Amino acid sequence: MTSLSHPVSSLSRRSATSPLAVVLGAVARWRDDRRARLALARLDDHLLRDIGLAPSGAVQPLPSRYSAF
Fold first, then answer.
1. Which domain holds residue 49?
2. What band does 54 get if pLDDT is binned at 50, 70 and 90?
3. How many domains does the chain contain in total?
4. Residue ranges of the YjiS-like domain (predicted)?
5. DSSP classification of residue 66
6. What backbone phi and psi angles, to 5 degrees, belong to 8?
């Protein structure tokens, strides 16, 4: 068994990923989520019930400040 030269608690918690890559990943996820919400908005109520979503709570309207994306 090998021992660490530094205790685990002293290891850096910073990721090797650049901050720009993290932001770009978050934007991509947000856009995918938005596409999913828009696709769900087009489904009929009976289809939403079939997949376990209530028609009234399935899609929340997007705030106008996000309409640029």
1. 18-54
2. low
3. 1
4. 24-56
5. G
6. -60, -35
- Residue 34 forms part of a structural domain: yes
Torsion of CA 37, 38, 41, 44, to 10 degrees: -110
Among candidates 38, 44, 45, which has minimal Cα distance to 60?
Answer: 38
Mean pLDDT calculated for residue range 26-52: 82
The mean pLDDT of the chain is 70
How much is the pLDDT for 58?
A: 46
Residue 27 lies in a domain: yes
**Measured between alpha carbons, how far is residue 22 from residues 14, 16, 30, 46 in Å?**
12, 10, 12, 38
Question: Is residue 6 included in any domain, yes or no?
Answer: no
And the tokens for 18? 């650049």
